Amino acid sequence: MKLHYAPASPFVRKVLACAILRGIDGQIETVATDPHVSPAHLLQDNPLSKIPALVLEDGRAVYDSPVICEYLDTLGEAAPLFPPTGSPARLTVQIRHALADGIMDAAVARRGQSAHPQDEARAAFIARQKAAVERGLAVLEASPPAGLGDVGSVAVACALGYLDFRFGHEPWREAHPKLAAWYAEVSAHPAMARTAPG
């Protein structure tokens, strides 16, 4: 399999961490891709020019990251990262996964806009994204994940890692001690340590 990726993307990191947890990371070839320039090799596999995009052995392309992670969960022999369909646990994991992805979306959008000249509209947009992240962190602090055994917890770890990577000057840990303690524990896991950005 071939994965279009950029090392700074938290969504790519989530996919790679899931592959490591499933024991199939050796089956994935990574292809460095800059989605902002819409290279032909990416557009061939994802018309939206977004990463990650996974190309299967039969040539089919899979995107975006939640779909890729769910596909990877059908491979390998390790414990599944998605609970059984229809179970209460699956809904809990999916909600946490969506919340973490939303935090990543907001943080990535904020980072992208921060590089441009500031005006009132852009400043308001950045403030909305920052507020979305803060609300998401508050929900996670009230009910932090346990361990790194499902895709929701992987996504949360990747979201927190991205905040450290791009907004390390903002001390999110102080207001979220339970979440910070959990993140300190799981950061040492090979799935996180081997995929750290930077």
TrEMBL record:
PROSITE patterns in UniProt: GST_NTER
Matches recorded under InterPro entries: Glutathione-S-Trfase_C_sf, Glutathione_S-Trfase_N, GST_Omega/HSP26, Thioredoxin-like_sf
Domain GST N-terminal: 1-80
Origin: domain of life: Bacteria
SUPFAM superfamilies membership: GST C-terminal domain-like, Thioredoxin-like
GO annotations of cellular component type: cytoplasm
Name of this protein: Glutathione S-transferase
Organism of provenance: Falsiroseomonas algicola
Lineage of origin: Bacteria, Pseudomonadati, Pseudomonadota, Alphaproteobacteria, Acetobacterales
